[in-house]
Amino acid sequence: MKKSFILTFTALIFGFGTYAQTTPKRPLKPSDVYRLQTLSDPQISPGGKWVAYTLSSVDSVKNKRNADIWMNSWDGKESIQLTYSPDGESQPRWSPDGKYLSFTSSRNGLTSSQIWLIDVRGGEARQLTDLKKGSLSDYAWAPDGKKIALVISNDPDTSKSKMTKPIVIDRFKFKQDVEGYLTKKTTHLYLYDLVTKKIDTLTKGIYNETSPKWSPDGTQIAFVSNHTTDPDRNANTDIWIIDAKPNAIMKQVTTWTGRDSGPEWSPDGKQIAYVRSTSSDNYFMYDQTILCVVSKDGGEPKLLSKTLDRPVGSPLWTKDGAFLHALVTDDRTRYVAQFAIADGKMTKTLTGNRSVSALERHPSGTILTVMSDPQTPSELYALESGNLRRLTTHQEAFLAPLALATVEGFTSKSKDGASVSNLLYRPANAVKGVKLPTILFIHGGPVAQDEFSFDLSRQMLSAAGYAVVAVNYRGSNGRGLEYSKIISADWGNKEVLDILGATDYLVQNGIADPEKLGIGGWSYGGILTNYTIASDTRFKAASSGAGVAMISSLYGVDQYILQYENELGSPWKNFDKYVALSYPFLKADRIKTPTQFMVGESDFNVPSVGSEQMYQALRSLGTPTELIIYPGQFHGITNPSFQKDRFERYIKWFNTYLKK
Questions:
Q1: Total of domains in the chain
Q2: Measured in Å, how far apart are the chain's first and last C-alpha atoms?
């Protein structure tokens, strides 16, 4: 009897295994937003045995996303969750001796974020700082582990929930998404002594200092600041250095009239790597970064990637200081390259149809990356002699039951002859040769690009039975500076030609059903949705998220005052230009496409007025439309239930008009 039970139990186990292996995979559904985790901010321990990082997950019951600190062993065999607080933790940083991990959190009912410390050998986290005023945004350990550089802002909270006094504004730029109305905020560097618990002021005055990086010997700190007469009127940041002691005098290292940022000390402490804008203008929407190296004493920098004509970022020194690793944004990819300090010679070290988003150096010299591809959300990988070794497997549970869309690249020609790079998402169950209802889902930016990375929005729409297309229209990066700059002060022209050119390709090649075309996008993707449906009536449904159309009504309403002033000029001087760019609203009677408008109620990036105006115009004209406003949300919709709701509304709207 006992033997019979064992045999039966074994049969059940093996039977379940067979069932699990043969269970058909299903398409994505909106509720899957609750299952997707987000990995970020990896930090390698000083000894190289562990990698700490944040992993955010959604509690669907509490409708809240929460980030915890995790550790993964460098050999990939162990994964440990260090924190479990419902308040969330971020910015994990190792103490120089490798015994402790610090992080920031407002746990235990704190009203502001503080630094906490946890012994990785075991034990509870303890609160390290007790800042009474200001907001902590960043911090960095001194190499000897005795002090920590703090970045603290002193601005008052202007969020609606905490306003008790009138907000007095006297700045040129006075609005910023998430931050709200901008008052006389200053952000400065401070030194926290771990023994005495004393905080000393390092920088002060009317300017802001950010991005502190300690020199290898711990005597100096490099940082970023804009010391022009009126920083609100430009984006001219420079690299500065200051001795790590109170009352020290800061020294300017770079003098480029554009933007310098991201300082990284060389191993010998004699040089600083950083990135700077290509343009020397004090405003540069359409620009790309160049990898540079300069002496810590200043002088003429070496422009290592000047001739590459691609954005380069995330500089990381090799152990010997002879090279810099960096990320290069190229046509639909982000790859890892190495640049020689001596002559700038570039060697690609990791390429392919993938997207790398972060780099860290292991003590052995090996590189740690955060990487995703069209079928895999971001995970940690070790890059060893050109080969990838996966360290984390957090996304396996999410991916296990899913049948994802296949993703392929294609090139289309626009009416004026421009060559445009695109991505096509085909549903997992798509039958070859059968025309599909198709949605062109347009990226924001505009200086951004769609890459061979995991894209939940397009995968979700494709799972609903649509071919989904990402168009890297002119204005996108990854194709060179001129490709981005060509749309300056000419919005809704060449981008629309590129979108329509991609649509023509899809129809001519039997991919898209010409009677079932849809278009949508968020931010500049929503703006281009408005421009496109005002230019062409072939689309049977549209969804415009966080977009605008009446450009002439946005001056002083959103956060882009520098762009208006420098790209379009003042409305009282160039009103004809503003009117010309407002054609989706002023010619709304040309729009025949049923259009859904969405926006966050508290969006200061692209305020709700833009969506409201277009909704009102179409409602007045009798064109099918609806307006969805997400309460308390900024430009990015972060509320998990609202994220799910948005996907459901996308699918319902497109199904109504494209699947009749």
A1: 2
A2: 61
